[in-house]
Amino acid sequence: VVVLGPSLIRYIGAQPVRTEAAATLPLIDWKLVRFSFWMAVSQGSWHGLQQYVFWHLAFVSGNAAAAMYFAVRLFAQLILLGGQTMSRALSAHVTRLWESTEREAALRRLEAGTKAGVLVVLAGAVVMSFLKPLILKAFPESYELGGACLDALLLAYAWFAALEFLLIRFHLEERSVWTFVSSLTGAVANVALACLVLGIRGDGVADVAEMLPRAGWVCAAGSGTTVLTCLILLTVTGRRPSIATMLMIAALGVIGAGGTWGLTFLLILVAGAFADTGVFTAGERAMIVDWIRRR
């Protein structure tokens, strides 16, 4: 930006105005500037939301506990990575429909894609929960205590992944300020809960076995607060997803109970997805199958 920015500005300024309509456009699109600003600060609060518990754990329990937490969290973040990949593909598809004035069709695709994405996220988290013994073998034996926070972190990042789908509704209308409000609320909740649950003694000697599960649940509570805030804002602003979608997102909480409970609920959801139970409508099932075939 620093090196090439001035040259880029001069190049753009030297381009001829091709139409009369273009000549009437303002030099600065303040709507775009506002959108970019709120997206930038929301990314800051988003990363603070994810990183604060790690820092606080290091503060109260020392670097060894923080290292175990960080190592296990790397695997939990794979759930978020998968969710982001799916949500980016869905966002591109839905945005194309939205901008071609097919807004009702775009919202229907978004609804179906969100539910399908949440189902895949749940499946991924359940698989990783069952693979916990194998995951821990990737680390030194001293890191075995880190397994105590894996299920809570899987829940946290499953909710983070679900949030990626929900935020598409704000991005379609360029309401990035609500993205910031959601992540900021979660970040503030994380700080408050970390101080309350993990303590504020900075001597680095708190019991590791006790603090690791607590840290995982603080992270899960922060992500849950972010999702809840987002759902409230969507409802207040008239962009609320369907009841079935909200119930599926809430039901991700079963991940925290461990792989067995998660698998049980996953099988129920999968069975419901192929029957007229309200999980997916017939139109949504046909839409998802058609989209998969086109891939």
Question: What is the helix/strand order?
Answer: HHHHHHHHHHHHH
- Shape type: globular
Q: What's the N-to-C terminus distance?
A: 36 Å
Which range does the strand content fall in? under 5%
Q: Stretches where pLDDT falls below 50 for ≥5 residues? A: none
Number of strands: 0
Number of helices: 13
- Quaternary organization: single chain
Main β sheet profile:
none
Which features would summarize this protein structure in a list?
295 residues, 0% strand, 13 helices, mainly alpha
Any overview of this molecule?
By secondary structure, the chain is mainly alpha-helical. It has helices at residues 5-14, 20-23, 30-61, 63-99, 103-130, 132-136, 150-166, 168-172, 176-198, 208-236, 243-251, 259-273, 282-294. Helix 3 (30-61) runs parallel beside helix 9 (176-198). The longest helix has 37 residues, at 63-99. The two termini are 36 Å apart. The mean pLDDT is 83.
Topology at a glance:
Layout: H1 5-14, H2 20-23, H3 30-61, H4 63-99, H5 103-130, H6 132-136, H7 150-166, H8 168-172, H9 176-198, H10 208-236, H11 243-251, H12 259-273, H13 282-294
Helix pairs in contact: 3-4, 3-9, 3-10, 4-5, 4-7, 4-10, 5-7, 5-11, 5-12, 5-13, 7-10, 9-10
